[in-house]
Each structure stands twice: as structure tokens, then as C-alpha cells.
Amino acid sequence: MSRIAYVNGRYLPRRQAVVSFEDRGYLFADGVYEVCEVREGRLIDERRHMERLSRSLSELRIDLPMPLSSLSAVLHEVVRRNRVRDGIVYLQITRGAAKRDHAFPPAGTRPGIVVSASRIDPAKTEAIAVEGIAVITLPDNRWDRVDIKSIALLPNVLAKQAAREQGAREAWFVASDGTVTEGSSSKAGIVTRDGALVTRKADHAILRGITRTVLLDVLRDHNLKLDERPFTVSEAQGAREAFITSASQTVMPVVRIDGQPVGNGAPGLVASALRRDFHRFAEKS
Length: 285
Fold this sequence. Notes:
By secondary structure, this protein is α+β, with helices and mostly antiparallel strands.
């Protein structure tokens, strides 16, 4: 079966799904994106993803290319045409195609839009969660507006590659004050020795993660204490547990940080319980 993508108003086979070389996403990384989990054929937390998309577009002064109701229909149709039961749907919107100029293009330039969907084997992801993952830490060298889900991800790309080259699955960015901000494609959290869950407050220093938002509801259900504050690398290494959150991995236990084991070096009870119960609290559409 040919994989199908939606590109600027048309559903096309992947080999024909191309954009203009003058698209500002290609020339300037002038655009935003969202990644939404697909579980059992349904979109997870679509409403929250669309709210964050609208905010990112507003911050960059890019127009929404269609009403949100129409965009929702496109997302579901791409998932349906690709027969994705478990996986992700990817959405990217740019400022459009125009003659190369750093300033905004002329008024009336249509935003560019691409939507694709791909499968993820949940059994493989679960097998990874059973073992837990390793992370490395790197200085945070990104721009100051990481709260916008921009497609300008070169520092994230380099960080992820550094992690892979060191046998880890993720990299955590560390601010100049020594505290962890977030991962290259995830949010970071720990469980302290006294059982409090610590994660950085969602301000301009990190992207407001959708999975992280849902996780707060799971915490309340489990009567767990939440402490929204920065934590250092050494505090994370000495914690009872550590974990990351993202749309494609939900809650993933971290068992090593910069080569040092966290806790007993195995996935902890809290992170495992949060992962198990996450989808009871997520919205499905």
C-alpha cells in the first residue's frame, strides 16, 4: 500500500508529496509543527495539540491555513488512508513559498501545510520501557523561545545524534545554572527520595508538553506530590527515579544519566505506574 501525505490541499502518494524549494520552512525553518499520538486508530489529545499549534502560529504571526475543524478532518483522513492504528500523525505549517527574503513575504502568501502519518509498534516501545533508557546531558544552546514548537531544531538534532553515538536514547539540555531544561524531543522529570515528582515549570525555558499536561491529572489520581521546579543533573542522578515524557513514548523510565545508574538502575514503580495509567486520562478523538 502506498503511504499517503497531505500537501497543500492534496492527498498524494509519498513519492509525489513535495513542496516548493522556495518554501520558507526549507529556506529559513520558518514554521511550526505538532506530533500527535495515534492509539487504536484514534488521535490522543488532539484538542490540546491544536491549542498549542494555534499559540505557536500566533507567536510567529503565521496564519492558520484552514479552520481547526477542517484541519482535524485532514488529520483523521491521513491516519485513515495510511491505516495507522498505533503510531503518530505529523503536522507542519510554514509561512509559505515566496522569493527568498528574510522579511515576511507579501500579504496573501498562502501558508504551507504538510500532514503525514506513520506506524509505531507498541510492543517494541513497551519492550524499551521495561528495560528503561539512558540519557546524556549537554549544554543548552537553543534560542530563547523554545516555548514555540518551531521546526528550527538543529541543536536538537545534534543533541540526539550525540546521544545515539554514546549509546543513549535521549539527551537532556542543561542551562547555564546547571539545571536540566528538557530533552531534545521530550520533557524531563525525576522522583525524589521522599516520593515527590519534580519537573520544570512550563515557562519560556521549555515547550509546554501535552503529555506532561495530561500527566498532572495522573499524578492527582495517584495522590502524588508535584514539585514544579528546576533540578540539577546531580540531583537527578541521586533521585529515586527519572523519566521522560513525549507524544510518541508517553512516560519512559530513565535508568542511566551520563553513564551513572538512577536508583537501582531499573525502571521505577512511579514512572511505570504513570505509564500504565496515562491513557485513562488522555483525550481520544
